[in-house]
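Q: Sequence in, structure out?
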Amino acid sequence: MVRTVLTYGDSNTHGTMPIVTPGEMRRFGRDTRWPRVMAKGLGAAWELVEEGLPGRTTQYGDPVMGAHLDGRDGLKIALASHGPVDLLTLMLGTNDLKHRFEPSPARIAAGLAGLLDIALHRDTLARHPGMQVLLICPPAVKEVAPFRADFLGAAAHAAALPAAVAELAEARGLGFFDANTVIETSETDGVHFEAEAHRTLGAALAEVVRGMV
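A: Exactly. Output:
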């Protein structure tokens, strides 16, 4: 039986390369992006659905980039478009750290809780019976150019985020992985992952998934 894993996230699930000049839209290839690396590690018994959208947040329509970046509607669409899904990975929170959203670890955890309410609702689980969820805390943002102004103060909030996400996962009885334990964001822009970080994260998550299922 082939199982399906849906990876739901932002630009770091999409595979956006570290950015030097704002406005660049470069994406790592299939062999590099962490969801693909994870899927390859899991083997032919798994089918991958990649759902990474640059700029996506847990709960905010972005006044600059667009209302469609509120992760709640996107998750409803993804779970209605695909299925049955056996495992859902959620890695969001990086964009919530932007200064314009007045971030805090508690507010980001609350946004993730809202997404879990959608994913674990009885109507959703009727379409995806037995679906498991893995919450992934993204690696901490570094306040460097070219996004330093957008993420002003983010480093302090990011440092406390793993504990907040872990507490949420424990309360809901879900899987949890702190990406900070294996990778860091790029020194180039402080937000995105270098190629080697994608490979490392994908390999680590393949092991986590094996342990869950």
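The chain has a mean pLDDT of 97.
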